[in-house]
Structure formats: C-alpha cells, structure tokens
Amino acid sequence: MYRLCRLSLVDLNPYNHFLTTPRIVSITSTALCLQELELRSLPLKWDDPVFCSTMLTSLIVACRYHRNTSHLTTPNVGTFKQLLSALHTAAPSLEVLELRDSIPFPSVTTVAGDSLPMLSVVKLLSLCTLHLTGEANCCASLINHLNIPSTTQIHLVGYSNPGHTMDLTLACCTLNTHISHGPPILAVCFLWEHVGSMITMSCWPFANTTGKAQFCLELHGGSSHTTLTDITESVGTFFSDVQDLSVLGLVHIRWSAFLTQFVSVRTLQLDMHPWDKFFSSLMEVSTLQDGESYVHLLGLPLLKLSDLYSRVPKDDVDVELVDEFLERLWVRKKCCILVSELHLNGCRHITAKDIRRLKKHVASVM
Q1: List of residues 6+ apart from 113 with CB closer than 8 A
Q2: Which of 33, 39, 248, 345 shows the greatest Cβ crowding within 10 Å of its Cβ?
C-alpha cells in the first residue's frame, strides 16, 4: 500500500487574500504519515487536522499576508498555544521549520486560560534549520518557547511598527539567550538597507564572514542609528568574542558606544565614510573603578575603509579629516597598539602626501 510522504499545497492566485476561501479540508488519515508538509498562501488554523503527523522532518507554513507598512497586525491562524501544540506533535523528527507570517500573537488570546506564562517549551532536538518571518515580538516569543540545538541555523525576519525599537531589541535579546549556550560568535556583519528600513545582522562561529551564517537576523522598522545602538547595548557580552566585524551601509552610528562592545575585534571593515566621531573612537580611554586606565580596541591589526573622505569643504575651508585619523594612529603607535594593515578603497580627496603620512604610523597601507 502506498502512503503519502510529502504534501505541498500552494495557492498561486494573487487575489485570493481578498476573498473568503475555505480552510484546508480534514485529511487526517492522509496526513498521519507525512514526512514533509508545505502550505503556502492558504487559509488555515494551527489546530487543523493536517498538522497531526508525528513523522514530519520538514514543516513549511507561509500565509498570504498583506502587510500594512504603517501598522502591523497578526494574521488569523489560531492561537499561540495551538501553534505550540502543533509543533509538539511534529517535534520528534523535525529538522526544518519555516514559518512565514503564521505566528499568532503570544499574549492574551480568545481561549480561556491560554496566556503566555502557562505555555510549555517544545523540544525540537533534531532541528537543523529554523526560519521565522513575522512581527519581531511574535518571533522572539516563539523562540523563547523552543528548545533547539545550539548548532541550529537561525534566520529571523522581524517586523516592527515604525519607531518601536523595543520589539527589535527583544528579538535580539531572545536570540542572544539561545546563542549564549553554543559556540562563541567570532564574526559579525551588519548591513543597513534604506529600502524598507532594514538592518541585517549575520553571525558566524568562525573568524570570517564567508559561507552560510549560523545566525541571521533581519529587522524592519527602525532607523540605522537607533536600532544598531540598541542592539549592541542590550545583549550584554554577546559581541565580546567577535574578531571580524563588518559594518556595511551604515552612515550614522554612535561609534564610541558601538565599538566598546567589540573588545576582541581584530579586523574592522567599513564600506562608507564613518561620521559621528569614528576616528576618536579608535582610541577610547576609560578610567575603571580601581583607577586603572582601560583602552578600548586594544588590538586592531587590520582596518579596511572604503569611500573614506580625507577632507571635506566647509565655509570655503577644507576640513582635514585625515588629520584626526593620523592623530589617533599616532597615539596607538605610541602605546604599542598600532594598526598593522590599512586597506583603503575608493577614498575621496586623498593625496599622495596623505598616504606617505599614513605609512609613518601603519606598517602596511594598501
């Protein structure tokens, strides 16, 4: 007797989210032995009989959801408790879990007694890949209720109402709690995209940013300045082991507060001119409680800068930005914590004289 192992149901009609369409029919007997289940753009509830298989290795649920950029609402897919119940059923063998716009709001629901503090943790001990898309607080709450291996690859796409950076910070703090049980994060890349106001943080457990990231967090709805600072200041020592740091597309950052979180960084790469006192932050000195001086960024052997402005015109006078940079490099050299390599690419208004001056304080300028 043949049995159905893989079921994929996809509604390709782009206008169906305006229509009242029936939910998935009862297919309990067919679904009992499913190993792979994929449902896309279909009306469903998490207590539907289709989620009854205990043999699932892959579960993909993507709801068609018209996202309003001015205000976010959760799609009507049942309750948070029903979602956890469905995942508990699929837990034993589940290796791939992808939920897109199908995570219910985790607070008070329509079911009596179904409140967040009373919900249990679902053990997904075979999970290799977790991909969640939805409101940032919904994604964070779901991860809080999952027990997954520290080696699980996580991709989280979190949305927040404009200006609600608390949701974005919550998502990052939650993932920090999970990752803290695994190997340390040694490489991080931040990417800011103006279209959609999205910031992406990708993390690797090895000291380079090649290959697939162990953890990727996309946050929509904040500003590049506020969101990035809030993330780095809210996750404790999460970045303390990072050796390779890339910051791409981010123009305005409170560099002093940002860089103090990366005490072990060895390579720093920027693809745009870093305003907001970046050069002074290369040599931040703080006084500890015992009176000792502490120099942030003790080691920075490799610095890669692209689109750097050496000078900018202001009131008919060129402001020599390179002078401030040279001053910080000189101080680092004097303190024997010099930058060993400086890679410059596409720098603005830089001269041969500037390069010669830089070479006095850096072993290699490329």
Answers
A1: none
A2: 39
